[in-house]
């Protein structure tokens, strides 16, 4: 019974943190959009929020399917666009990759190498954790196709 309670507590804390970001986002949207074309600005923010929601849904699905491809792609795209929620989602996905939750370790290694190249400061730690789970053949294959 104890692990379920700990998992629920973790999930609740994560929901509160991510939910708090949305409140700040609404307030920021009002001030950020005031200085530029408001319609374009709000459309971009809405698009990012839709993409974030899709990414969160993909993340939740991936936790049972073992395929983080869609969650990673959406999180990375948002993070590279400067979206703070996207950056949080990318960090959550990278942690899952490092724990070995993605079914393709070679692909996960490549993704984290791309993140390292992008300057994501926490990616090396998680890639190192994943490396410990990989077979020598998987690691060789990943390094062969990765220059980062």
Give the C-alpha Rg.
Answer: 17 Å
Largest sheet: none
Helix share bin: over 70%
Which H/E pattern describes the elements?
A: HHHHHHH
User: Which class best fits the helix and strand makeup?
Assistant: mainly alpha
Tally the beta strands: 0
Beta-strand proportion: under 5%
Distance between the termini: 43 Å
- Low-confidence segments, given as residue ranges, are 12-18, 20-30
Count of DSSP H/I helices: 7
Shape: elongated
Overall pLDDT level: 82
Question: Can you describe this structure?
Answer:
With 148 residues, the chain is an all-alpha fold. It has 7 helices and no strands. Helix content is 79%, strand content 0%.
Provide a concise account of the structure shown.
With about 150 residues, this protein is an all-alpha fold. The chain has 7 helices and no strands.
